[in-house]
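Handout, section 4.2: multi-component inputs.
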Amino acid sequence: MFITLEGPEGSGKTTAVEAAVKKLQEMGYEIVRTREPGGTPISEQIRNVILDKENTAMDGRTEALLYAASRRQHLVEKVWPALKEGKIVICDRYLDSSLAYQGGARGLGIDEILNINLFATENTWPDLTLLFDIKPEIGLARISANANREVNRLDLEKLDFHNKVRESFLQLAKRWPERFVIIDASLDRETVAKNTMEAILSRLCK
Ligand code: TMP
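Output:
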């Protein structure tokens, strides 16, 4: 089973899934936790190029292609082998982030970005996508309150960009309702963790 975690900056998706991972491991499932862009040495190198705050000259299509390249390498080296071995892969961000950030917020077009990603992923879709929905104002405030979190090139985009990211994610959830579950990430931590766990368990038991 391939599960992806999506949402605007500061939605708390990484923390929200921790309790669910623990519970699944106790139940005997083997879990692979990973992230995009990154998750393998080559993909982490691509991540550094994409997110470097100095790379202000980066063109939008270059950015989209680099995310797709990093995604492909991550699938080849990590995700596909784990799925083949029957493990549950839980990945922070996947192709929906490209559709929302590059397709929607950068204005490159959701279907254009989908096309390059279908090539990159050979039509590998998640079984479940949890969308941690939160207003960008709240998410960005959480990030700036967290001194340990490194600010990246995309965090520095204006509020309007982040609003478009959120709207695009919600649009994607409407387009693929059978794959998406929306989690209200503005609720308290315990409730968000509980709702995350329920969403995963109910999909597993389907
Ligand atoms: P994160 O690891 O802190 O979530 O940072 C990754 C950043 O990259 C975040 O701002 C979202 C952005 N991103 C895209 O714009 N497109 C993508 O395809 C992915 C995976 C991430």
